[in-house]
Amino acid sequence: FGFNSSFDLPLVSGKSTYPTNISNDLAATALTGFGQGNVRATPLQMAMVSAGVANDGTVMYPRMIDRITGADLSVIKEFDNQVYSKVLDHDLDSQLVQMMVDDVEASGGAASNAAIPGVQVAGKTGTAQNGEDQPYTL
């Protein structure tokens, strides 16, 4: 998903981190699974995770501009999509998407407040902490 990598964008973006030296520490490995321990994620990073899940498990390089147009709306330059990595196979990605849809659409789902009538929405609450006004990613 691009953790431990930086990206060349026309804005300041911190580097997200995922610990690489915890393979022998089962407790630390388990804690990272729900965002605890030494996991640090930027908003850009979490957008890449959400987009990768929505894109059938394929993470794209982030970019800020799709195309540049002239005053007459003619396309001067277009920027191509570039694959960063394939992180989930189709079957696993489909299962994860369904769980995220259920989290929004199921009665009592943790993200049920994000439901939009007539629109399929997938979501995941964004914190393992118990706090007021914590951020979410959808």
Automatic annotation (TrEMBL):
InterPro entries: Beta-lactam/transpept, Beta-lactam/transpept-like, PCN-bd_Tpept
Residues in Penicillin-binding protein transpeptidase domain copies: 17-134
Superkingdom, taxonomy of origin: Bacteria
Major location (coarse): membrane
Biological process, per Gene Ontology: cell wall organization
A molecular function (GO) term: peptidoglycan L,D-transpeptidase activity
Membrane topology: Single-pass membrane protein
Subcellular localization: Membrane
GO CC aspect terms: plasma membrane
PANTHER family linked: PENICILLIN-BINDING PROTEIN 4B, PEPTIDOGLYCAN D,D-TRANSPEPTIDASE
Protein name: Transpeptidase
Lineage: Bacteria, Bacillati, Bacillota, Bacilli, Lactobacillales
